[in-house]
Design goal:
- The strands form two sheets. A three-stranded parallel beta sheet has the order 4-1-5, sandwiched between helices.
- By secondary structure, it is an alpha/beta fold.
């Protein structure tokens, strides 16, 4: 089966995107070297690749929760941060049930 899709990617023109991440060893780790914060892991490499390909910078905040539905119809955690506009992108190993 051959797919004939043309993918168009937005050029964010250097815009700073707000990323919410969940710190997980091997996937998204925060390390400090000489009082400077660095990130490493598989998901960090994906963010870096997207950043270069789509021309954006980013700032990172953290949460300990992936996200769950709330009684009021909203969401908690990383999913909630994206849905309520506090973050532009969530970075975590999420699945859909």
């Amino acid at each position: 089966m051959k797919l004939n899709h043309t993918f168009k990617f937005k050029n964010f023109a250097g815009e700073n995107l707000r990323i919410v991440a969940i710190l997980i060893p091997g996937l998204f780790e925060k390390i400090e070297i000489n009082n400077t914060v660095h990130y490493k892991g598989f998901l960090v490499e994906i963010v870096e690749t997207f950043s270069k390909q789509l021309n954006f910078t980013y700032s990172i905040s953290y949460t300990k929760q992936f996200g769950a539905p709330l009684k009021n119809g909203g969401w908690s955690g990383a999913v909630g941060a994206v849905l309520n506009g506090a973050a532009d992108m969530g970075v975590a190993p999420l699945t859909i049930n």
